[in-house]
Amino acid sequence: MSYPGxxxxxxxxxxxxxxxxxxxxxxxxxxxxxxxxVLYGGFVLLNTFWPETMDATPFAGVNVAIWYGFGLILAxxxxxxxxxxxxxxxxxxx
Length: 94
Hints:
elongated
């Protein structure tokens, strides 16, 4: 019986192991893509089932849909930077 924390630790161990560079980078890309997919899925679910939540204006008169959209764009850039950094670190080790 495993829990999400053990699964994450196991994936991280595989990613940071001495596996071939190509498979390591591919797995890392899939993990980061899965994280982004969860974020985007939350956006879609909010829009589909709770559209009134997206109409709320929490900050500066801008609605949640706009803030969430900007958050998704920022998350994509940050995940790309993380991917590039981790792949470059692996290349430097070799």
